[in-house]
Amino acid sequence: MGGYRLSHFRGCSGKPGGSARVADDALSEVTFYLDENILPVVFSFLPAKAFFRLQLVAKRFHQLSTDRRFLLEQAGHNKSASGFFYRDVCGSYGFFLIDPYAGIPASFPEYFNYSDEVLASAGGLVFYQRKRYWGDDHGSLCVCNPARRTWQTLPCPPSQKFGKETRVSVAVKFVYDGDDMTEDYKLICLTEPTDCPLFQHCGVYDSAANAWTTDEEIDLGPRELEYDHPVVSGETVYWASDCVGYLAFPDPYVVAFDTTTKRTEIIPVPEGAVIDSDDDTIEVGMWNERLPCLIHYNENAATFTLWMLRRKSEGSPQWVKSHEISSIPSVPSFVLSHDSTGMLLVYSDGYNAYSYSFKDGESQQIGSGFRYYRKFIPYTNTLRPCGKQEVFLSSPEKTSSLLAWGF
């Protein structure tokens, strides 16, 4: 039976302030063996960066990198955000890490054009709209896995409007069917209306069929929606509206769209969420991957307030206040996410990025520079395949560099 020998050295280290030198007899070697059949299970818990480094050790790791079941199992075990894409006010993209053990390979090509738009990231996949040039009326919808250097172009949406609207929103729903390792997913793609402001155009892409299964106009209320961070819970997609006072009625709201019944529901913000400025912002998020929630940033009070959405059987939805966080004045962008330690709120004052840990109750600066952070997109470091027709990146057309890929 094949196996691998692993050696671990243990011993004492110098005391703080003392000599760091350790006597030879203070170290002891502990050797143990892993059965070859256990290796895929053990290493499926590693982030993509750590796994690729282990490929230098043995051919077995190269074999695992082509094992689709292993790739999906690894994606199922690595769901925490390891970093964030961000976009600045000039249209450039960047990337910063929050997990030193994960990351995107430094050799990843300078891939995104200035005219491209990163729409969403989920399960280690990045979905983006590729345009050949500014004003391109027929942009392509693509997906890539930066860690594996793979990509795939998706079929063109049936709507002739796709690529012509100023805004596109994409929500990602993985289809498990009782199997945590399935690679199938659905994209709920919403495009901004150009003619009738009361209706949004909605298309649903099914990766299993490699086709668009829904193409219709839906009523999501009279207000403009926050397109950047929709969330999916079960079969329902949630978007938050804007808070601008150009409409006296209705008040800001969250809209829910059931992808099965095609019904929409307008959920008013909680009464306790006092929106007293056009600069206030509401966003939707997922708490611990299971509970939709509302995040309200109050500009005048410089506070974030979280409200959990709860539904009683056959009853109307109810908001339950859970957290109130003192923040900084003027926050143009924020997103709710989670890393290996728990839930995070990542936000920016413009030129600096911060994360608030709900576990520790503390904020820390995680990014700074001359770029203006106006959009955050969480990324997880997985080996998930892009699809059955994925190809490895060669040297795509290079224009200007947008992403600072690196470990």
Automatic annotation (TrEMBL):
Residues 138-353 form the F-box associated beta-propeller type domain. It comes from the Eukaryota. It holds the Pfam family FBA_1. InterPro entries: F-box-assoc_dom_typ1, F-box-assoc_interact_dom, F-box-like_dom_sf, SCF_F-box_component. This is F-box associated beta-propeller type 1 domain-containing protein. It comes from Musa troglodytarum (fe'i banana).
